[in-house]
Amino acid sequence: MKKQQLEILLQKVQGHPKPSADLEQYSTPANIAADVLWFAYAQGDIAGKKVVDLGCGTGILGIGAKLLGAEEVISLDVDEAALGVAMKNASALGVDLSLLTVDVKDFPEPADTVLMNPPFGAQKSDLHADVPFLERALATAPVTYTFHKAETEPFILRRVTELGGEATHRKAYGFPLPHSMPFHTEETKEVPVVMLRIARGARDASSIAPGKG
Fold first, then answer.
1. CATH number of 3-11+20-202
2. Angle, in degrees to the nearest 10, between helices 131-140 and 153-162
3. What is the mean predicted confidence (pLDDT) over 35-44?
4. Which of the four, 6, 41, 47, 104, has the lowest number of CB atoms within 10 Å?
5. Domain layout of the chain by residue ranges
6. What does 2-52 look like in DSSP terms, one character per residue?
7. What's this model's pTM, rounded to 2 decimal places?
């Protein structure tokens, strides 16, 4: 499979019919998901691996991992409606996901790789909502691929270091947020986002390498 073929397949993944502002349920765009998944595949972090998607939403990252040959994919979320859509999406694309309704803090299983697009903590009432996801990710797997708002990157990198990890690669994206919430005033707003590849216990990288798709 080529990256373009993966993107075409992921464009078929349906988003959440009624996204929640509190849960920051913004779908990962197919082109960005495909780019990150292809990069992770090239790093040897997908094919034949046990992959966990923390806060999976409607399943795009986990589905993509399965399409690229992951041995097992566990996708979890607290929202049963999102998981219902994820199940339909996986079925439509002919892949099997293990779907769990569970808070990330309560997920106990080890894995090879974590993929996640956590809530950014954009709501004033829940700043740094992505931190519990980050903590669980580093406790779950030796390698994590995670999205964060670009403006919070220094804070995230400090927290990663405190958790015994290191960002080995980064990719920058303009993340389009469509008009999907009642408080949105623009049709689409582009938010600067970084994707970090984090390796647990990696201390040999002198700097963060740019990711290459």
1. 3.40.50.150
2. 40
3. 98
4. 47
5. 3-11+20-202
6. -HHHHHHHHTT----SS--TTTT-PPPPHHHHHHHHHHHHHTTSSTT-EEE
7. 0.89
